[in-house]
TrEMBL record:
SUPFAM superfamilies: ISP domain (SSF50022). Keywords: 2Fe-2S, Cell membrane, Disulfide bond, Electron transport, Iron, Iron-sulfur, Membrane, Metal-binding, Oxidoreductase, Respiratory chain, Transmembrane, Transmembrane helix, Transport. Residues 257-323 form the Rieske domain. GO terms for molecular function: 2 iron, 2 sulfur cluster binding; metal ion binding; monooxygenase activity; oxidoreductase activity, acting on paired donors, with incorporation or reduction of molecular oxygen. This is Cytochrome bc1 complex Rieske iron-sulfur subunit.
Protein backbone atom coordinates (compact mmCIF):
# COMPACT_ATOMS: atom_id res chain seq x y z
CA UNK A 1 0.00 0.00 0.00
CA UNK A 2 1.44 3.33 -1.02
CA UNK A 3 1.18 6.52 1.00
CA UNK A 4 0.91 10.05 -0.33
CA UNK A 5 3.58 12.46 0.85
CA UNK A 6 2.42 16.00 1.50
CA UNK A 7 5.36 18.31 0.84
CA UNK A 8 3.59 21.15 2.68
CA UNK A 9 4.31 19.36 5.97
CA UNK A 10 8.10 19.44 5.47
CA UNK A 11 9.87 21.77 7.90
CA UNK A 12 12.01 24.49 6.36
CA UNK A 13 14.29 27.26 7.53
CA UNK A 14 13.27 30.91 7.45
CA UNK A 15 14.62 31.35 3.92
CA UNK A 16 12.73 28.29 2.68
CA UNK A 17 15.61 25.81 2.63
CA UNK A 18 14.88 22.33 4.03
CA UNK A 19 16.07 21.67 7.55
CA UNK A 20 19.25 19.58 7.77
CA UNK A 21 19.03 16.19 9.40
CA UNK A 22 21.88 17.09 11.75
CA UNK A 23 23.07 20.46 12.99
CA UNK A 24 26.74 21.24 13.22
CA UNK A 25 28.19 21.84 16.67
CA UNK A 26 28.66 25.62 16.92
CA UNK A 27 31.32 25.17 19.59
CA UNK A 28 31.96 27.43 22.54
CA UNK A 29 32.23 31.18 22.42
CA UNK A 30 35.68 32.63 22.77
CA UNK A 31 36.52 33.00 26.43
CA UNK A 32 36.81 36.58 27.66
CA UNK A 33 39.30 36.89 30.48
CA UNK A 34 38.36 38.86 33.57
CA UNK A 35 40.61 41.50 35.08
CA UNK A 36 41.11 39.32 38.13
CA UNK A 37 42.40 36.44 36.02
CA UNK A 38 45.59 38.35 35.25
CA UNK A 39 45.71 40.98 38.00
CA UNK A 40 46.23 39.64 41.56
CA UNK A 41 45.26 43.02 43.00
CA UNK A 42 41.88 42.91 41.24
CA UNK A 43 41.31 39.39 42.51
CA UNK A 44 42.16 40.47 46.05
CA UNK A 45 39.82 43.42 45.70
CA UNK A 46 36.99 41.09 44.65
CA UNK A 47 37.72 38.89 47.64
CA UNK A 48 37.44 41.90 49.97
CA UNK A 49 34.14 42.85 48.37
CA UNK A 50 32.77 39.38 49.05
CA UNK A 51 33.94 39.63 52.67
CA UNK A 52 32.20 43.01 53.01
CA UNK A 53 28.96 41.53 51.70
CA UNK A 54 29.18 38.70 54.21
CA UNK A 55 29.91 41.30 56.92
CA UNK A 56 26.75 43.17 55.93
CA UNK A 57 24.85 39.92 56.34
CA UNK A 58 26.38 39.40 59.79
CA UNK A 59 25.42 42.92 60.88
CA UNK A 60 21.90 42.43 59.52
CA UNK A 61 21.45 39.18 61.44
CA UNK A 62 22.70 40.76 64.65
CA UNK A 63 20.53 43.80 63.96
CA UNK A 64 17.43 41.61 63.68
CA UNK A 65 18.04 40.23 67.16
CA UNK A 66 18.72 43.72 68.56
CA UNK A 67 15.62 45.16 66.86
CA UNK A 68 13.46 42.40 68.30
CA UNK A 69 14.87 42.98 71.80
CA UNK A 70 14.90 46.79 71.87
CA UNK A 71 11.89 47.70 69.73
CA UNK A 72 9.00 45.41 70.74
CA UNK A 73 5.72 45.59 68.79
CA UNK A 74 3.83 47.28 71.63
CA UNK A 75 0.12 48.00 71.65
CA UNK A 76 -0.10 50.82 69.13
CA UNK A 77 -0.13 50.77 65.34
CA UNK A 78 2.94 53.03 65.29
CA UNK A 79 5.02 50.77 67.51
CA UNK A 80 4.01 47.69 65.52
CA UNK A 81 4.91 49.41 62.28
CA UNK A 82 8.34 50.49 63.57
CA UNK A 83 9.10 47.04 65.02
CA UNK A 84 8.13 45.27 61.78
CA UNK A 85 10.07 47.79 59.69
CA UNK A 86 13.32 47.41 61.63
CA UNK A 87 13.00 43.63 61.85
CA UNK A 88 12.22 43.34 58.14
CA UNK A 89 15.13 45.58 57.08
CA UNK A 90 17.56 43.66 59.29
CA UNK A 91 16.42 40.29 57.91
CA UNK A 92 16.68 41.68 54.38
CA UNK A 93 20.28 42.72 54.95
CA UNK A 94 21.06 39.36 56.53
CA UNK A 95 19.74 37.35 53.61
CA UNK A 96 20.65 39.75 50.80
CA UNK A 97 24.25 39.91 52.01
CA UNK A 98 24.58 36.13 51.77
CA UNK A 99 22.98 36.00 48.33
CA UNK A 100 24.99 38.86 46.84
CA UNK A 101 28.21 37.53 48.31
CA UNK A 102 27.59 34.08 46.84
CA UNK A 103 26.85 35.54 43.38
CA UNK A 104 29.88 37.85 43.42
CA UNK A 105 32.11 35.03 44.65
CA UNK A 106 30.99 32.78 41.81
CA UNK A 107 31.38 35.47 39.15
CA UNK A 108 34.64 37.07 40.27
CA UNK A 109 36.65 34.36 42.02
CA UNK A 110 35.60 30.98 40.67
CA UNK A 111 36.61 29.51 37.33
CA UNK A 112 34.41 30.94 34.57
CA UNK A 113 35.58 28.83 31.63
CA UNK A 114 32.72 27.29 29.70
CA UNK A 115 32.79 23.56 29.22
CA UNK A 116 30.88 21.18 26.99
CA UNK A 117 30.50 17.51 27.77
CA UNK A 118 28.99 14.76 25.67
CA UNK A 119 25.81 13.23 26.98
CA UNK A 120 26.28 9.76 28.39
CA UNK A 121 23.97 7.14 29.87
CA UNK A 122 22.92 8.09 33.40
CA UNK A 123 23.56 4.70 35.01
CA UNK A 124 25.39 5.25 38.29
CA UNK A 125 28.24 2.82 37.84
CA UNK A 126 31.26 2.81 40.09
CA UNK A 127 33.46 4.81 37.71
CA UNK A 128 30.72 7.44 37.49
CA UNK A 129 30.53 7.76 41.25
CA UNK A 130 34.29 8.06 41.49
CA UNK A 131 34.21 10.75 38.84
CA UNK A 132 31.45 12.62 40.67
CA UNK A 133 33.49 12.69 43.87
CA UNK A 134 36.47 13.97 41.90
CA UNK A 135 34.29 16.70 40.41
CA UNK A 136 33.15 17.77 43.87
CA UNK A 137 36.73 17.93 45.08
CA UNK A 138 37.67 19.92 42.01
CA UNK A 139 34.82 22.32 42.73
CA UNK A 140 36.02 22.86 46.29
CA UNK A 141 39.52 23.44 44.99
CA UNK A 142 38.24 25.76 42.28
CA UNK A 143 36.32 27.89 44.79
CA UNK A 144 39.64 28.53 46.60
CA UNK A 145 37.81 28.26 49.91
CA UNK A 146 40.63 26.27 51.44
CA UNK A 147 43.25 29.00 51.04
CA UNK A 148 41.03 32.01 51.76
CA UNK A 149 40.65 31.94 55.52
CA UNK A 150 39.02 35.37 55.94
CA UNK A 151 36.53 34.64 53.17
CA UNK A 152 35.69 31.25 54.65
CA UNK A 153 35.27 32.72 58.12
CA UNK A 154 32.99 35.49 56.86
CA UNK A 155 30.82 33.01 54.96
CA UNK A 156 30.51 30.57 57.87
CA UNK A 157 29.74 33.38 60.34
CA UNK A 158 27.04 34.95 58.15
CA UNK A 159 25.39 31.59 57.49
CA UNK A 160 25.52 30.72 61.18
CA UNK A 161 24.09 34.05 62.40
CA UNK A 162 21.33 34.57 59.86
CA UNK A 163 18.94 31.96 61.37
CA UNK A 164 19.09 33.86 64.66
CA UNK A 165 17.11 36.71 63.12
CA UNK A 166 14.24 34.28 62.61
CA UNK A 167 14.77 31.90 65.53
CA UNK A 168 15.02 34.52 68.30
CA UNK A 169 11.65 36.21 67.59
CA UNK A 170 10.08 32.79 67.12
CA UNK A 171 11.40 31.43 70.41
CA UNK A 172 10.61 34.72 72.13
CA UNK A 173 6.96 34.31 71.20
CA UNK A 174 6.72 30.75 72.50
CA UNK A 175 5.73 32.10 75.87
CA UNK A 176 2.67 33.84 74.45
CA UNK A 177 -0.91 32.74 74.59
CA UNK A 178 -1.14 29.41 72.76
CA UNK A 179 -4.70 28.75 73.87
CA UNK A 180 -6.38 28.06 70.53
CA UNK A 181 -9.79 28.24 72.22
CA UNK A 182 -9.18 31.97 72.70
CA UNK A 183 -10.82 32.49 69.31
CA UNK A 184 -14.09 31.44 70.95
CA UNK A 185 -13.96 34.44 73.30
CA UNK A 186 -14.52 37.98 72.03
CA UNK A 187 -15.84 41.21 73.53
CA UNK A 188 -19.30 40.56 72.15
CA UNK A 189 -21.79 39.98 74.96
CA UNK A 190 -25.49 40.44 75.46
CA UNK A 191 -26.34 44.14 75.29
CA UNK A 192 -23.01 45.33 73.77
CA UNK A 193 -23.77 48.01 71.20
CA UNK A 194 -22.58 47.79 67.62
CA UNK A 195 -20.42 50.81 66.73
CA UNK A 196 -18.86 52.06 63.52
CA UNK A 197 -15.20 51.17 62.94
CA UNK A 198 -13.06 53.15 63.68
CA UNK A 199 -15.02 56.06 65.18
CA UNK A 200 -16.84 53.96 67.77
CA UNK A 201 -20.17 55.72 67.14
CA UNK A 202 -23.18 53.56 68.07
CA UNK A 203 -25.49 52.59 65.21
CA UNK A 204 -29.24 52.95 65.21
CA UNK A 205 -31.24 50.49 63.13
CA UNK A 206 -33.01 53.44 61.51
CA UNK A 207 -29.67 54.67 60.15
CA UNK A 208 -29.02 51.44 58.22
CA UNK A 209 -30.59 51.53 54.78
CA UNK A 210 -31.24 48.51 52.55
CA UNK A 211 -28.12 47.66 50.54
CA UNK A 212 -25.72 49.41 52.92
CA UNK A 213 -22.77 47.78 54.66
CA UNK A 214 -21.01 48.79 57.87
CA UNK A 215 -17.70 47.75 59.39
CA UNK A 216 -18.50 47.26 63.06
CA UNK A 217 -16.63 46.93 66.36
CA UNK A 218 -17.91 46.46 69.94
CA UNK A 219 -18.65 49.53 72.04
CA UNK A 220 -15.89 50.73 74.39
CA UNK A 221 -13.28 48.65 72.58
CA UNK A 222 -10.53 51.09 73.61
CA UNK A 223 -11.08 50.19 77.27
CA UNK A 224 -10.00 46.58 76.71
CA UNK A 225 -6.64 45.43 78.08
CA UNK A 226 -5.34 44.71 74.57
CA UNK A 227 -7.52 46.77 72.18
CA UNK A 228 -5.79 45.71 68.95
CA UNK A 229 -5.91 42.01 69.81
CA UNK A 230 -9.56 42.22 70.78
CA UNK A 231 -10.45 44.19 67.66
CA UNK A 232 -8.74 41.59 65.48
CA UNK A 233 -11.13 38.98 66.86
CA UNK A 234 -14.32 41.03 67.16
CA UNK A 235 -14.55 42.95 63.86
CA UNK A 236 -17.87 42.49 62.10
CA UNK A 237 -19.35 43.18 58.68
CA UNK A 238 -23.01 44.22 58.98
CA UNK A 239 -25.34 44.56 55.99
CA UNK A 240 -29.02 45.24 55.51
CA UNK A 241 -31.22 43.65 52.89
CA UNK A 242 -34.91 43.21 52.31
CA UNK A 243 -36.10 40.74 54.98
CA UNK A 244 -37.79 38.76 52.19
CA UNK A 245 -34.32 38.04 50.73
CA UNK A 246 -33.22 36.12 53.80
CA UNK A 247 -33.16 32.45 52.82
CA UNK A 248 -32.51 30.95 56.23
CA UNK A 249 -31.27 31.74 59.69
CA UNK A 250 -29.49 29.64 62.26
CA UNK A 251 -32.06 30.40 64.94
CA UNK A 252 -34.92 32.68 65.84
CA UNK A 253 -33.99 36.33 66.14
CA UNK A 254 -30.49 36.24 64.62
CA UNK A 255 -31.18 39.36 62.54
CA UNK A 256 -33.24 42.51 62.96
CA UNK A 257 -35.49 43.65 60.14
CA UNK A 258 -33.12 42.36 57.45
CA UNK A 259 -29.95 43.50 59.24
CA UNK A 260 -27.40 40.69 59.61
CA UNK A 261 -23.91 40.72 61.10
CA UNK A 262 -21.05 38.30 60.45
CA UNK A 263 -17.44 38.00 61.54
CA UNK A 264 -15.04 39.70 59.12
CA UNK A 265 -12.39 37.03 59.72
CA UNK A 266 -12.39 34.62 56.79
CA UNK A 267 -12.71 30.96 57.79
CA UNK A 268 -10.02 30.00 55.27
CA UNK A 269 -6.81 31.63 56.55
CA UNK A 270 -8.11 34.63 58.48
CA UNK A 271 -8.03 37.46 55.94
CA UNK A 272 -10.57 40.28 56.41
CA UNK A 273 -13.70 39.79 54.30
CA UNK A 274 -14.60 43.37 53.52
CA UNK A 275 -16.37 43.35 50.14
CA UNK A 276 -20.16 43.19 49.86
CA UNK A 277 -21.99 42.74 46.56
CA UNK A 278 -25.40 44.36 46.84
CA UNK A 279 -27.23 42.48 44.09
CA UNK A 280 -26.17 38.94 44.98
CA UNK A 281 -25.74 39.52 48.74
CA UNK A 282 -22.33 37.90 48.47
CA UNK A 283 -19.48 38.70 50.86
CA UNK A 284 -16.05 38.28 49.26
CA UNK A 285 -12.65 37.65 50.80
CA UNK A 286 -10.07 39.45 48.58
CA UNK A 287 -7.18 37.14 49.53
CA UNK A 288 -8.32 33.84 47.98
CA UNK A 289 -11.79 34.72 46.66
CA UNK A 290 -13.79 32.74 49.21
CA UNK A 291 -17.39 33.89 48.77
CA UNK A 292 -20.17 33.75 51.36
CA UNK A 293 -23.92 34.28 50.95
CA UNK A 294 -25.10 36.84 53.51
CA UNK A 295 -28.72 36.00 52.78
CA UNK A 296 -28.16 32.35 53.69
CA UNK A 297 -26.29 32.46 57.02
CA UNK A 298 -23.02 33.36 55.23
CA UNK A 299 -22.65 29.86 53.81
CA UNK A 300 -19.74 29.26 51.43
CA UNK A 301 -20.72 29.49 47.77
CA UNK A 302 -17.24 29.63 46.24
CA UNK A 303 -13.58 29.35 47.13
CA UNK A 304 -11.36 27.39 49.51
CA UNK A 305 -13.16 28.23 52.78
CA UNK A 306 -15.03 25.29 54.31
CA UNK A 307 -17.12 26.95 57.03
CA UNK A 308 -19.69 29.78 57.01
CA UNK A 309 -18.72 33.06 58.61
CA UNK A 310 -19.73 33.05 62.30
CA UNK A 311 -22.91 35.05 62.78
CA UNK A 312 -23.47 37.62 65.51
CA UNK A 313 -27.08 37.59 66.75
CA UNK A 314 -28.36 41.17 66.98
CA UNK A 315 -31.41 43.15 68.06
CA UNK A 316 -32.15 46.72 69.23
CA UNK A 317 -32.25 48.23 72.71
CA UNK A 318 -34.83 50.59 74.16
CA UNK A 319 -33.19 53.56 72.43
CA UNK A 320 -33.20 51.91 69.01
CA UNK A 321 -29.47 51.16 68.93
CA UNK A 322 -28.28 47.85 67.50
CA UNK A 323 -26.90 45.53 70.18
CA UNK A 324 -25.61 41.98 70.33
CA UNK A 325 -27.87 39.32 71.79
CA UNK A 326 -24.86 37.14 72.56
CA UNK A 327 -21.39 36.30 71.24
CA UNK A 328 -20.65 34.59 67.93
CA UNK A 329 -22.37 31.25 67.44
CA UNK A 330 -19.08 29.49 66.49
CA UNK A 331 -15.35 30.26 66.97
CA UNK A 332 -14.09 32.96 64.65
CA UNK A 333 -11.24 32.58 62.19
CA UNK A 334 -9.79 29.68 60.22
CA UNK A 335 -9.89 26.06 61.26
CA UNK A 336 -7.14 24.62 63.43
CA UNK A 337 -6.18 21.17 64.64
CA UNK A 338 -9.03 21.06 67.16
CA UNK A 339 -11.64 22.35 64.75
CA UNK A 340 -11.57 20.95 61.23
CA UNK A 341 -15.13 21.92 60.24
Amino acid sequence: MSTHHDPSTDLTTRDGAPLPERFEDPGLHEHRARVGDSDPKAQKRAERQVVVLFAISILGSIGAVVAYALVPPGETVGSMRMSNLLLGLALFLGLAGIGLAAVHWAKALMNDHERAEDRHPTATSEPVRVKAVEALREGVKDSSIGRRGVLKGAMVTSLALFPLGIAVPLVGNLGGDWDVSASKRTLWRRGVRLTIDPSGRPIKASDVTIGSAFHVIPENLEEAEHPLDEKAKAVVLMVRMDPRDLKSEQGEGWSYDGIVAFSKICTHVGCPVALYEQQTHHILCPCHQSTFDASDSAKVVFGPAHRPLPQLPITVDDEGYLVAQDGFDTPIGPSFWERLT
